[in-house]
Design brief:
The protein has about 220 residues and is an alpha+beta fold. It is built from five helices and five strands, in the order ααβββαββαα. A five-stranded antiparallel β-sheet has the order 1-2-3-5-4. Strand 1 and strand 2 form a beta hairpin. The longest helix has 19 residues. The radius of gyration is 20 Å and the shape is globular.
Length: about 220
């Protein structure tokens, strides 16, 4: 049972730390009082607390999926072999910006957030494979990109993420939270990006051009 609850407790901790306005739960409450509070609020006792937070995008009746048994061997990721890696075979013309060792791209069409961009090494490397030089450059570029995106008038904050399960070629994602949309704060913003109507294409293109120009201005 502990292994089933651990991922939910981790996400709850991340969401609580990154979503302002949450009231810390007292460690002195009893199980009976917690259950009473859940019944009073209408929350299901088998659901994590974050489903009732303002940032969570869904409401109504929900149920947990059963946790599948772990597999004995992890499946290969996309592009585990360099000759099959799409990033390695994509020309610079498909990217917003590039230099000797790094390239920046965006998804092919606007989404619900003002900006979503992806930073990749030119070489076929994952995060743990980066040389000291690559690692230092990644730190500098992360700061420059965050600053560039946050400088856009429509942007309040920038989330920086790396998910290791999708592709073997490192992708560091930068997602911009639009100014004033407090309900989008925290770890659920990637969900809101797909839920919200896409931003206007001309605004999206202007934002991307601005970011590319910022990086090009050494």
């Amino acid at each position: 049972m502990l292994s089933r609850l651990a991922p939910m407790r981790y996400l709850s901790g991340v969401a609580s730390a990154s979503t302002p306005g949450q009231i810390p739960q007292s460690n002195h409450s009893t199980p009976n009082s917690q259950q009473g509070n859940q019944r009073a609020s209408g929350a299901r006792s088998d659901l994590p607390a974050f489903v009732a937070w303002p940032a969570f995008p869904f409401e109504g009746e929900m149920r947990l999926k059963p946790l599948q048994e772990p597999v004995s061997a992890e499946p290969p990721r996309r592009g585990d072999r360099q000759e099959q890696c799409s990033a390695c075979h994509t020309p610079d013309s498909a990217y917003l910006w590039s230099n000797e060792r790094w390239r920046l791209k965006s998804p092919p069409a606007p989404s619900g957030l003002p900006v979503v961009v992806i930073l990749e090494p030119r070489a076929h490397l994952d995060l743990g494979d980066l040389s000291t030089m690559h690692a230092a450059e990644l730190g500098v570029l992360t700061v420059r990109l965050e600053r560039a995106i946050r400088n856009l008038e429509s942007v309040a904050q920038v989330h920086v993420n790396r998910w290791g399960d999708g592709t073997a070629h490192l992708q560091q994602w930068f997602l911009a939270r639009p100014h004033g949309y407090l309900q989008l704060r925290g770890p659920f913003m990637t969900m809101w990006d797909e839920i919200l109507p896409p931003v206007e294409e001309h605004e999206w293109r202007m934002n991307l051009e601005y970011i590319a120009a910022w990086l090009a201005d050494d």
